[in-house]
Each structure stands twice: as structure tokens, then as C-alpha cells.
Amino acid sequence: xxxxxxxxxxxxxxxxxxxxxxxxxxxxxxxxxxxxxxxxxxxxxxxxxxxxxxxxxxxxxxxxxxxxxxxxxxxxxxxxxxxxxxxxxxxxxxxxxxxxxxxxxxxxxxxxxxxxxxxxxxxxxxxxxxxxxxxxxxxxxxxxxxxxxxxxxxxxxxxxxxxxxxxxxxxxxxxxxxxxxxxxxxxxxxxxxxxxxxxxxxxxxxxxxxxxxxxxxxxxxxxxxxxxxxxxxxxxxxxxxxxxxxxxxxxxxxxxxxxxxxxxxxxxxxxxxxxxxxxxxxxxxxxxxxxxxxxxxxxxxxxxxxxxxxxxxxxxxxxxxxxxxxxxxxxxxxxxxxxxxxxxxxxxxxxxxxxxxxxxxxxxxxxxxxxxxxxxxxxxxxxxxxxxxxxxxxxxxxxxxxxxxxxxxxxxxxxxxxxxxxxxxxxxxxxxxxxxxxxxxxxxxxxxxxxxxxxxxxxxxxxxxxxxxxxxxxxxxxxxxxxxxxxxxxxxxxxxxxxxxxxxxxxxxxxxxxxxxxxxxxxxxxxxxxxxxxxxxxxxxxxxxxxxxxxxxx
Amino acid sequence: xxxxxxxxxxxxxxxxxxxxxxxxxxxxxxxxxxxxxxxxxxxxxxxxxxxxxxxxxxxxxxxxxxxxxxxxxxxxxxxxxxxxxxxxxxxxxxxxxxxxxxxxxxxxxxxxxxxxxxxxxxxxxxxxxxxxxxxxxxxxxxxxxxxxxxxxxxxxxxxxxxxxxxxxxxxxxxxxxxxxxxxxxxxxxxxxxxxxxxxxxxxxxxxxxxxxxxxxxxxxxxxxxxxxxxxxxxxxxxxxxxxxxxxxxxxxxxxxxxxxxxxxxxxxxxxxxxxxxxxxxxxxxxxxxxxxxxxxxxxxxxxxxxxxxxxxxxxxxxxxxxxxxxxxxxxxxxxxxxxxxxxx
Lengths: 554, 344
Description:
heterodimer; A: alpha/beta; 6-stranded mixed β-sheet; 20 helices; 25% strand; disordered C terminus; B: alpha/beta; 8-stranded parallel barrel; 9 strands; 41% helix; globular
């Protein structure tokens, strides 16, 4: 292609100021985006991908500054334009689909008025023409009936629908370039697929170029023409997707590819497990919540869920938002009492326990949460965080406690140097190690992992998954693993329950469920997993029948 | 670019002018008439029992009926009725009558507040305030919607639309969630105490999680109503504004020190920050309010001069400057009704 690139970034360096120090976070980055092309900026947290993307829109945070280099839009150098001047092109020439649909819309203004605003600012017609265009845009992004949607407020829409509104805003003025900053990271996998399809369609219709910022190599591989891989603010490698996936040149790209969870890497079958020794047996679990506002109505969050988990194995509960998976594990750990059903943990019926007995029983079954930033008390030292469950449950001498805490930290791969630190001084992966150590300090038999690796970068995620695997082998732990990420689930689970709207729609050994799903829903989930284009070094990719298998004629 | 979504402008008073009770009611009425003339959408009065330094008005509906007779357009609200201390059916009756006499202009803010000693005087337990509040609010809604009360009687006059004009005041995330679940409006306080863990937290740091909980709980089909009350005093001259602020805030500082709530230094600047006060010329107040992130997600903004409490003429001038110069910078435009064009 010889046309002028829509976006041309040359030798860009960006620094952030904290206090009176400036720290450079983007170092001499150069890349371009041709008209109609999709280029993905790929990298982990701290790679500088979002900072680079923000700079192309002139949206750096207040303490950020372009130190050197140029950003050209359609050949025009906009690097040092004022915000006022940038306002004239933002939306019209280059627009943004932001990361978090939850906080990017104003909750107290209607969808229609927020969509109309961008048209009004750029003076695209009178009130009547703008209203007509708003309705047309809402219809185009699949928000129907559009007249009704225009009058709704953000809280009345799901996450996927809010992202559709933001897409409508981004394409309203038919820009030449859309910067999509992790546009689907907060969404369920089937919604993610529909949203990415929509962006693809709109791009093809109007020839818009897309700069896609993502941490998910699978998404990038499936959707982009070219990849730009960033690490610590430097480009490690860039080129056409096909070439890079087939023959990555940099060690970092190779590691990213190896760590990316994909459908190609099932866990090896586990030998020699006694098939009748169950650590968890759930039978007919049902949970109703009262619906407020109405009259004596209830909402059935879980409907007749049953599964068994063999000792020393991993069972996954998979489902999207609202599927009932969180309610299910809250029942299993005894936080809430189910409406009906039986939960046996080590042969003890949890639903019959009360008070002190229930409290004592809880130490056998421990929970690790998703968010390594929110689940540790910021005021406590690491030693204190890991020690605390011992103080609550087991009155043992201080010297023994201290030894136990050190042992646990060593087991999760943290040196003694971490004992006196606070959570804020730790990375996300280190915090999740602390959370695991805290859960293990009471020698539980069952660990419930609630989206425990979902917030982590892929390389860190791979490390934590391998730590969990090692702990399971040495300590004989049973895991109940809750996740929305099917690729991760397939990598580490022996058995799985797929939940949809409170019901188990598929269940059994992982290979059976993934290879021959009973339900259309599970098939849709599997189809929606990004990363189909990724190579599968672990062996042949799993054949997923997306249509009905051919029948043999009689 | 930040667009503020303020739809309605309110004037709020605790009737604290430094005069006797009769004069307090006369001045407050005049302030509300002035607010109406300046284009304000609503006026709100607080209910306080016994302590004249806390507030000047124990009987909100009596006063609002009077204010209604002296105004024609402005909406009139309670901010708030201390519901645990009330007989809910009497509140329902007073509100229904006031609403009819004002031409449907009533807004009803309620909350579990109330002075602790007042509970004793009313023969109630202050630690029951939340249970009392919940029960009384439920009864209030039943009465207004024309539902059968114990014994089978129904409210006369019934007033089913008042149910959609309830606002709940709260200091907590769980309280905000309850307001959302009920589909009521949310009233946010002008200032809130900081926790010992985060003494430097901004008011938005505390109130944004409340907004999140409210919006998350709000049922479909319900328009969000979020009213942020703020201490705002606008003056023509910055020196005069600061002098009056110092006088007023210092009054409060001594009282706070006596109750052990005093954490700030003695400088007026510290007090302004500690008590979330927006004071100064219109330009200064605009800048100060624009940095309050809560207001980017509020539908209603009400100004109150407490705890500066300047003399009456300054309050009138502050009302003018707020509607004329400050509020338009926050996205507010005066409602222009057909046939009511004002001639300046």
C-alpha cells in the first residue's frame, strides 16, 4: 500500500511526572496504520500500549507529556496541538471506544442525548436531523427498538449494550481511525465476540482503520492485520499477524504465545485417581432470592445443580455474568444457605451445620478471590495477612505461627524479604501468591478459586496456574475453579459444569464437554473463545464442531 | 471535555438566620421567593427538633404551605423529614394536603436522621432509628398509594403520585443501595465525616461509591434522581466572602471542637477544605465545583449557605450570582415555560 497512512507514529517518547521526577514510559515507538487496516497494540500491564494509544488522541493524563517524536494523522503533525484544536478532530477524524463501558457513559443522561451530543458539537444538522441520525445509529449497532433505547438511561442497559452505545458514539461522525482501547475486556466471551464482529462490520462498511489495544493475544490474532508487540514501553516486534504467529522473532513474543491460554492445550489426563473418593458432592442445589419491590416473588439463581469432585482433582464451574456460578460457590463454602439441596464436603453435610461447627468446618475449605488488589488489607504486613487465619482458628505458639507463615510463603515462591512488606509494594501476581498462602495456612483440603487468575497478565497467569498445579500435587488439594475463561479452564480442569441462567447445561469430564457439548450454549461459548488463529504447539488443535456433524447414510 | 448534567437547581435552608423564630420564617420565605425569581427549580427546608442552633424549623409542612402561597412555580421540598420521629400517616396527610394546596409542587425528602436526645423526648429509642425509618417509609408509601391501612381505612386525600417524589438521604453505601432498590431519589450531604484510615479523602471519594451502589440497584424504567447538596456562598468580592466565611465557620469550629469532631487547624482555609465549602467569586466557585467529581453524575444541585450563614442580604446576592453566573457553567439552563417569559 502506498497511500498516506492514517496514523504515523515516529520515534515517540512519553514520560509521566510524579512529584518532581519524570519517568519515561514509552521509548522511541514507531508504527503506522494504513487506511482500512486493523493494527493491534499488544502487551501486558505497564507495556505502554494504552499510553501510546491515548497520545494519538491527545488524551494523555495530566501528568503525561510527549517528550519527543511525532504523531501524524492523515499526514498532519498533531503532536503539539492544543486541546481546543484537537477537539475539532476528535470524533470526526479519530475517535475512541473506551475500555470500561460502565464508567464511560453519564449515568444521569439518556442514551439518546449522549449520542446526540457528539453530533451537536460538530454541528451535524438541526434538532430533527440529529434525532433521525441518533435513531439510525442505534439501529445500526443493534440497539432496538431504537426509539425506546434513546430514552433509556445507562443503568437500564447491560454491559454489552453500553459498549454498543459507545461504538455508536465512536462511529457517529464516520472517522477515518477508531482507537479501541481494550473494548471488550470487561465483557463476557459471547458478548465480546458479538461486539468485535460489530466493529469489524462497521469498519468494512466505511473503510475505517482501527488501532486495537489489547492484552489478549487471542483477540489480536483473530482480528488484526498487523501486530505491534510492546514490552516496558519498547516495541519488541511488529509485522503481519500471519508471519509473527508462524515465526515470532523476539523471545518475548514467543513467551507471550506460549503463555496465552488457548483451546489447543488440554491438561494431561491424571493417572491413578481413585474414582470413588469424592471431596465435594453437590446434589440438587437450588437457591432462590426474594425480588424486592414485587409481591412475594423470587428469583431462582440456581436451579437443581449437581456435581461431584474427586479428591485431588480440579472441577471448574463455567458461566457468564448472571449464570449463578458465584451463588453456587458461596453455598459450597457455607456463606449462604441454599433453598434446597445437599452439599457434602469430605462427607459432611454443610447445609446442616450451624454456628461454631460451621465456622470450624470452614477452615477445611478456603476461598481465593479474583481481585488481588482489593482482597488484601492494605494496612497489614504480608506476614500478618498470612498469619491472621491462624489467630482466628488455631491457638498455637507464636514461634510455630511464624514458622508456618515462612513455610507458606516459601511454598508460593516468595522469599522472606516479603514478610514485612505491605500489599501496595507487591505486583498483581505477587499479591495473588500471598492470597494463596493465606488460604493454605490452615491446611485446607479444598480450595475454591473464584476467577483467581482473571485479573492477571498472561505470563503471570501462567506462573500462578503452574504454582496451583504444583501445590495440588504436593498437598493433595481439591480445587473448585470458577471462571468465565474457557481456555484457562480447559488447561487446568479435570471436570466441568457449564452454567447458564442458573442451570447446569453441560457437565462431566473436560474433554467430553469440550469435544462433544450437549447444549447449544456450550457450543456457542466455545466458538466465541478468541485465539482460534493462535498456533498450538502442544499438539493438534481441538476440533470443535460448530455445525452439526455429518451423518452417515443408513 | 466534561459535560455536567445538572438539570435542576435548588436552594436549601436550615433557617438559621441570627434572628428570632418569626423573623427566621419571614426571611426564609423571602429567600425562597428570590430563588424562584432567579430561576431556581426547587427550594428545600430542613426539619430540626428543639435545638435552635441546629435548625430553625420543626414543622416542615406548615412552613411549606405558607411558602407555597407566596410562590407560584418553584418546587418545594423537605430536606429532610426525620421520619423515625414521625407518625407516618400524619406525615402522609400533611404532605398530601400541602401538595394539593401548592398545585402539585411538593417533593418529599426523608431520612433516618434526628437528634439523639429528641428520640428520648418522643419516647423512642435512637438505636431503633433505622427499623423505625423502614417501617414508617413503607407505611407512608402504602398510605399515599391508597392502599388499605390496618383496620381497612384508606388515606384521604390519597396522593398516588407522591410516591414518585420521594428522596432518601443517606451517608452510607448501603443506604444508597436501598434508595436505588426502592426507585427513590438519592440525596447526598454537603459534607461527610472522613474515616481515620483516609482522613484526606475527597467528598467525591466517599460519595462516588454511594452513587455506584444507587445506580446499580435502580430498577429498569426508573429515571435516576441524584441530588447533591453543597455549601456554596458566592459574593462579588473575594475579601468579603472570606471574611464572612471565617466568621461563620469559626462559629461551627468551636462547636465541633466541643464535640470532639474538630480535626483541622484554625485557619479559614483549612476549615473550608475540611467542611467541603465552595466560597468566593463566581469564577472561584465555578472552578471549585467543577473539581467535585460527584457533580458530574448528579441531576440536582442545591446550594445552602450553612455553615457560613452570612447575613440575609448576602444570601440573596449569593442566590442571584449562583443562578446567573455559576450554575450555567455546570450545564444548568433555566427552564423556560411557554407564556412565562420574564422581562428583565
